[in-house]
Specification:
- Its main location: membrane.
- It comes from Planomonospora venezuelensis.
- It is found in: Membrane.
- This is Putative Tic20 family protein.
- With about 100 residues, the protein is mainly α.
- The protein has one domain.
- About 75% of the residues lie in helices and about 0% in strands.
- It contains 4 helices and no strands.
- The protein has helices at about 1-10, 15-25, 30-55, 60-85.
- Helix 1 packs antiparallel against helix 4 (about 60-85), helix 2 (about 15-25) runs antiparallel to helix 3 (about 30-55) and helix 3 (about 30-55) runs antiparallel to helix 4.
- The chain is elongated and about 45 Å long.
- It starts with a helix and ends in a 15-residue tail after the last helix.
């Protein structure tokens, strides 16, 4: 279930991790922590994409969007593999909205 939280982030954005967090927050502390981590990362990505859209008017946002996307895919795959092994993974670039 923890791995699914990270994988759903690839497909559904913040909705998948949010559903996993709300569904499993009382069941397993490990799944809750990983779902919160995935949710925080998705919310951080939303802020990054919004900043890129604003910066697109200065043409730098068009360069920033692919960098954010490639980095997010790499981090989410690493997180999913770590969660599959049962390890606690923390994204290196993450704003902690949900604890």
């Amino acid at each position: 279930m923890a791995m699914l939280s990270h994988v759903l982030g690839l497909v559904t954005g913040f909705v998948g991790p949010l559903v996993m967090y709300l569904a499993k927050k009382d069941g397993s502390p490990y799944v809750r922590q990983q779902a919160a981590e995935a949710l925080n990362f998705q919310l951080t990505l939303m802020i990054g994409y919004l900043a890129s859209i604003v910066l697109a008017f200065a043409l730098i946002g068009f360069l920033l969007m692919p960098v954010i996307w490639i980095g997010s895919v790499i981090f989410m795959v690493i997180a999913a593999v770590a969660a599959n092994r049962g390890e606690r993974y923390r994204y290196p670039i993450n704003i902690r909205f949900v604890s």
